[in-house]
C-alpha cells in the first residue's frame, strides 16, 4: 500500500503533479469516492451548551 499522492494520475485521483505536490483535493479513495472524515455529527452534540466545569473543588 502506498499513498495516492505518490502515484501517477492514472492510478489515483491524488496522483501526478510536478515534484512533491500535495493532492489538491479532499481525501478520496482510488475510485474517486470521498474518504476519511466522512462521519456524521453526533445528534446529542447540539444538546451540550457549555462544558462541565472541571476541578470545582479547588
Topology:
Layout: no helix or strand
Describe this structure in words.
The chain is mostly loops. The chain has one domain (1-58): Ribosomal protein L2, domain 3 (Irregular), CATH 4.10.950. The chain has no helices and no strands. The radius of gyration is 20 Å and the shape is elongated.
Brief characterization of the structure:
This protein is largely without helices or strands.
How large, in whole angstroms, is the Cα Rg? 20 Å
Number of helices: 0
**Weakly predicted, low-confidence segments:** none
Strand content: under 5%
User: What kind of assembly state do the chains in view correspond to?
Assistant: single chain
Large-scale geometry: elongated
Instruction: Let me know the CATH homologous superfamily.
Output: Ribosomal protein L2, domain 3
The counted number of beta strands is: 0
Structural class estimated from helices and strands: little secondary structure
CATH topology: Ribosomal protein L2, domain 3
CATH class: Few Secondary Structures
Major beta-sheet overview: none
What keyword list fits this structure?
58 residues, single chain, little secondary structure, elongated, 0% strand
Amino acid at each position: 500500500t502506498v499513498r495516492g499522492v505518490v502515484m501517477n494520475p492514472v492510478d489515483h485521483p491524488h496522483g501526478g503533479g510536478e515534484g512533491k505536490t500535495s493532492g489538491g483535493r479532499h481525501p478520496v479513495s482510488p475510485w474517486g469516492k470521498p474518504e476519511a472524515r466522512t462521519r456524521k455529527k453526533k445528534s446529542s452534540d447540539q444538546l451540550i451548551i457549555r462544558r462541565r466545569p472541571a476541578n470545582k473543588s479547588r
